[in-house]
Structure formats: structure tokens, C-alpha cells
Write a structure and sequence with these properties.
Blueprint lengths: L5 H5 L5 E12 L9 E17 L5 E5 L4 E5 L8 H15 L7 E7 L9 H17 L5 H15 L7 H8 L4 E6 L5 E5 L4 E7 L7 H19 L20 H18 L5 H17 L6 H12 L3 E7 L6 E7 L3 H14 L5 E4 L4
Parallel strand pairs: 3-5
Antiparallel strand pairs: 1-2, 2-5, 2-6, 3-4, 6-7, 8-10, 8-11, 9-10
Helix pairs in contact: 2-3, 2-4, 3-4, 3-5, 4-5, 6-7, 7-8, 9-10
Length: 358
């Protein structure tokens, strides 16, 4: 069955509902799988997962935005990739001690997909929150993030760090979340006064994001092995990187400098200083980490040149997707209109992602 609400699809109201936001990462890109520091903030768009026990032998999953319906059991993963995220959460919850009965599951979301705003993490966290409510599980928000990450790695096959799941489970839309991905120590950080966040889609599909992400992760692991450390987080002296061959030296340099930018931003009350750190982050992602593409660079450049923008950078894995900008409060619409018009003149079609268009 496809289309409609939970009631129209399954013929009865849900027993429990869980929801979780997408996120945008302000600083700390490609540092989480190196045990480093990240600074995400939640976005207003949410994924909502509604569940109800059913009397059959199978799970019945309906995704409203995709207009897809899937049936499966926990004995084998479903074929559609989106369904493996939900399946993985059910498997992980059962592995953590939950007795998960066959369910009717309805997914509705306005988190933009495929642009680096963590739609998959929002789906995972919302699924686990719905299970927590339905089954009265003793899962706190950190455990939910950890189970969600394991589901993405083990069942969905994406070797992600824990940034996205922790942000979806713990962040809010008013403050950034400073997270140490090694210890999971965290605290909220106020944005500089008089600022707001703007996220624009470059219109470039992230076709290489998964393969490029895995390659960068492997390069970081190789650099750490050459330096004799468990992760690049343990390297504090930049001069040690001189012993590495390229591109490992540049990959490691990005991680070290990006960690430093996150920590500096977390103590900054100046919008100008915060923006300069974002600008430096993009340059590092472009030159040292090589995960940008020409249209992304153009969109970031246009944002950085606008007088109402303090700083801008790509956000997410790169190779396409979105850019995030720190803007003067109250000006995001005018900035977006001007920048997207100039971007279109250069032959590219972008769109506003955050704040959500009316």
C-alpha cells in the first residue's frame, strides 16, 4: 500500500510515534571518524516514524515521501536501501535486549534527502525513539545514537562516524553541539549574537560521496598507521605530518586544522571570527581534503562575497550537496535570492534548504 497517512495506509492509528531532526554541521567536517571534534546544529525539518504492532509474521514499512512499501522479517534485510536503515535499527534494538514484535511502520519526513543534512540519521533516531516509546525501553539518547550508528554501519553498509546520529539525537535548533566524538563529552554552544544559519543546495548530486568518503577514511587510517597512532586525534604536533607522503600529509593536515577550528569557534562570540573559521574550513576541504567540486566552490564563493554573510563552507561529505553560511540575522532570504540568482547565471540551479521554504 502506498500514499497517505498511517491511518489511511494501515487502517488504524499508530500506537507510538518518534521523531528526530536533520542537522547541518557548522564546523568539524571529516573529523568524527578520526575521533575528533564536531560542531553541528539541528535543523527544523524532522522525520516522523509511527508504529503499531500487527498480527502478521512480517514488518510492513511504508515511506510516504518515496511512495514505497516494503515487507520483511528480521531474518534478512529488505532489498530497498532506504528500508535497511529501519531494519538495522530493529535488529540493533533487539540485540540491545528489546523484544521487537512485527510492526506496521510509517515514515514521513521533510528532511531534504541526499544533500548532506543527515536524513538517514534522522530516520534511524526517529525509528529508535518510536520503539522506545512503544516498548518502554530504557534507552537514553546517547545509546539511541550509538545503536543508530551501528545500524548504519552494520546493516546499511555505510562506515559513518557518530556525528550525524549524536546530532539528530541530542542537538537542538537554537544552539550548536560541541561534541568530542572519542569520549562523547559534549556541551551546547551559543551562536554569535545577531546571526542565523542559511543552507543552500548546490544542485550537484553527491554521486561520489560514498566512494570518496570511504577513500578519505582509508587515507586517514593509513596516515595514522604511518604515524604509529590509533587515530589522527592523537597527533598534536603539525610538524609530525612532514614525514607523510602526499596525499596522506594533506589529509591529516585537514583533520588537525579542522579540529583546531572547531575548538576555537566554540569559544568565539564574534560572528566575524566564526565566519573566518568557516571560510578556512572550506579552503581546507577544497585543497587538503579534496572533497569539493567546482559548482560547490562557486556557490561558497558567492556566499562569502555577500556583505550579509560572515562565512560559508560546504557541509556534509562533499562531492556535491549543500553549503552552509553564517548570515546577519533577518537577511537570509535576501542573501539566498541574490546568491542563487548569481549562481544560476553561472549555469547552475541551486535552492534554499534551511530555513525551510514556505
Amino acid at each position: 500500500m502506498t500514499g497517505g497517512t498511517f491511518e489511511s495506509v494501515f487502517g488504524a492509528p499508530p500506537e507510538a510515534v518518534g521523531q528526530a531532526p536533520g542537522r547541518v554541521n557548522l564546523l568539524g567536517e571529516h573529523t568524527d571518524y578520526n575521533d575528533g571534534f564536531v560542531l553541528p546544529i539541528a535543523i527544523a525539518q524532522q522525520t516522523r516514524v509511527s508504529v503499531r504492532r500487527n498480527a502478521g509474521p512480517e514488518f510492513r514499512l511504508h515511506a510516504a515521501e518515496l511512495d514505497q512499501a516494503v515487507r520483511f522479517t528480521l531474518d534478512a534485510p529488505p532489498a530497498p536501501h532506504f528500508a535497511t536503515y529501519v531494519y538495522g535499527c530493529l535488529v540493533q534494538a533487539q540485540g540491545a535486549g528489546a523484544q521487537v514484535p512485527p510492526l506496521d511502520i510509517h515514515v514521513a519526513s521533510d528532511v531534504p534527502m541526499g544533500v548532506g543534512l543527515s536524513s538517514s540519521a534522522a530516520l534511524e533516531v526517529a525509528t529508535l525513539r518510536a520503539l522506545r516509546t512503544l516498548l518502554s525501553l530504557d534507552f537514553d539518547d546517547v545509546l539511541i545514537a550509538q545503536l543508530a550508528q551501528r545500524a548504519e554501519i552494520e546493516q546499511a553498509g555505510v562506515r559513518c562516524g557518530i556525528l550525524d546520529q549524536m546530532a539528530s539525537s541530542l542537538a537542538d535548533t537554537r544552539r550548536a553541539l560541541l561534541l568530542d566524538t572519542r569520549s562523547l563529552e559534549r556541551r551546547f554552544v551559543d551562536l554569535p549574537a545577531g546571526c542565523e544559519i542559511l543552507v543552500l543546495d548546490s544542485g550537484v548530486p553527491r554521486a561520489l560521496a560514498e566512494s570518496g568518503y570511504n577513500a578519505r577514511r582509508a587515507e586517514c587510517e593509513a596516515a595514522a598507521a604511518r604515524l604509529g597512532v590509533a587515530s589522527l586525534r592523537e597527533v598534536t604536533d603539525p610538524q609530525l605530518l612532514d614525514s607523510l607522503p602526499d596525499p596522506l600529509r594533506r589529509r591529516a593536515r585537514h583533520v588537525l586544522t579542522e579540529n583546531a577550528r572547531v575548538l576555537k569557534a566554540a569559544t568565539s562570540s564574534s560572528a566575524l571570527d566564526f565566519g573566518e573559521l568557516m571560510n578556512a574550513s572550506h579552503a581546507s576541504l577544497r585543497d587538503d581534503y579534496e572533497v569539493s567540486v567546482a559548482p560547490l566552490d562557486r556557490l561558497v564563493e558567492l556566499l562569502q562575497e555577500h556583505p550579509g554573510v560572515y562565512g560559508a563552507r560546504l557541509t556534509g561529505a562533499g562531492f556535491g550537496g549543500a553549503c552552509v553560511a553564517l548570515c546577519r540575522e533577518g537577511e537570509w532570504q535576501a542573501i539566498a535570492d541574490a546568491v542563487l540568482a548569481d549562481y544560476a547565471a553561472s549555469g547552475h540551479a541551486g535552492r534554499i534548504l534551511v530555513p525551510a521554504p514556505a
